[in-house]
Design a protein that fits this description.
Helix content is 38%, strand content 15%. The protein is α/β, with parallel strands linked by helices. The strands form two sheets. It has a seven-stranded mixed sheet, sandwiched between helices. The termini are far apart. The structure holds pyridoxal-5'-phosphate.
Length: 386
């Protein structure tokens, strides 16, 4: 019987190697660097472990789970979310490669692309992935090895039609990767739409408690899975077992947390839409969002992340200064609500012009709505601008 994702997430230990032998409701943390080859027997098809950088049963549990829920062929859990982006680049790009990236991307990805450009002469083509004709022009005229986007994008909250982009990328023999950090696999599974890789920062909603940084990348085929494992071992990208344990503690509650983040964020976005100090609210669950219908079709839940443009930078800064519950913090997906000015913090690697091109102003505030009582959050917003 095909089970729903939340059922798999509630029985996380079943994905651990040797789970059948103990029936433990949580899995052991193999905090070891090495394994004795003489003690292991592969005559029954058992896997042999030798060194934790290459393979570790604790990490394998999480990799098995992510492979299962993303409908992939294999996964590598990485020590940060940006390490999974780096591993994607190390696996799919070489010197003088071309990559096509949605212009609205996480600031850390943008910085990494600059490094690949400077060090390895990788040509980075940025495009608006809502404009397929422009994308196709780039794909037709350049040997693109990899197409990459987020959906929703961070910080612009744009929704990309993943199936269309997958088809277009494959038409020109390019691999297609989706950064699924915002939606998470409980909401959308990029490989089902034809992507070759789904990667995500597990720092955010998946761990859900803001206690650790980590990431993962899932490949659609065994061949691509072998390649990410090869480069993860060679470049030392893999996650340590203790962090796997910390990440796993939040996973069974992912669905109920996402529902709550969604509900509260819609409530607050609608409240802000009515305030005269706000000029624009960008939230994929509001009918005013340009890709509202696609968001409804492609995702089961929207994340608790949205942007609001204030009438001035001064007002945005005053608001951030005066809130008592909202912290001025980067990152998202934690129980505590956060606000930040992307131009100052999470996307400071972009120039003002590059931000303007993706619709982000100096007075744009990004909200990450947590799990607090929503009335308390509204009161905090009201008192901050009294
Ligand atoms: C969309 C996206 N991808 C990747 C990352 C990087 O993840 P980490 O901070 O865990 O390295 C972030 C971090 O904010 C992000 O927003």
């Amino acid at each position: 019987m095909k089970q729903h994702i939340e059922t798999s997430l509630s029985h996380i230990a079943k994905f651990a190697p040797f789970a059948e032998q103990t029936g433990a409701s949580h899995f052991p943390i193999y905090n070891t660097g090495t394994f004795d080859l003489k003690k292991q027997d592969d005559s029954n098809g058992n896997k042999i472990y030798d060194y934790t950088r290459s393979d570790n049963p604790t990490r394998e549990m999480l990799e098995n789970l992510f492979t299962h829920v993303e409908n992939g062929a294999g996964c590598v859990c990485t020590h940060t979310g940006i390490a999974s982006v780096a591993l994607l680049f190390e696996t799919t790009l070489k010197a003088n490669s071309h990559i096509l990236v949605e212009a609205d991307c996480y600031g850390g990805t943008f910085r990494l692309l600059k490094i690949f450009k400077e060090k390895y002469n990788v040509t980075v083509h940025f495009a608006n992935f809502l404009h397929f004709d422009k994308m196709e022009e780039v794909l037709k005229n350049n040997p693109i090895d990899l197409v990459l986007c987020e959906s929703p994008t961070n910080p612009g909250l744009k929704i990309i039609d993943l199936e269309k982009v997958a088809n277009l990328s494959h038409k020109y023999n390019s691999l297609f990767a989706v950064d699924n950090s915002l939606a998470t696999f409980i909401s959308q599974r990029p490989l089902d739409f034809g992507a070759d890789f789904s990667l995500f920062s597990t720092t955010k909603y998946i761990s859900g408690h803001g206690a650790v940084v980590a990431g993962a990348i899932v490949a659609s085929t065994q061949e691509l899975s072998n390649q990410i494992h090869y480069y993860a071992n060679a470049n030392g990208r893999s996650q340590n077992p203790m962090d796997v344990y910390l990440i796993s503690l939040g996973i069974p509650t992912l669905k109920i947390r996402m529902k709550e983040h969604q509900e509260s964020s819609i409530f607050i976005a609608k409240f802000l839409e009515k305030q005269d100090y706000i000029t624009k609210v960008t939230h994929p669950a509001l009918e005013s969002h340009p890709q509202y219908l696609l968001a409804q079709k492609q995702m089961a839940y929207v994340p608790g992340l949205f942007c609001a443009d204030f009438t001035s930078v001064e007002l945005a800064e005053k608001f951030i200064e005066n809130t008592k519950i909202f912290g001025e913090k980067c990152s998202f997906g934690s129980p505590d609500s956060r606000i930040e000015i992307p131009a100052k913090i999470s996307h400071a690697t972009f120039s003002k012009e590059e931000l303007a091109a993706i619709g982000i102003a100096s007075s744009t505030v990004r909200f990450s709505i947590g799990l607090e009582n929503v009335e308390d959050l509204i009161e905090d917003i009201k008192q901050a601008l009294k």
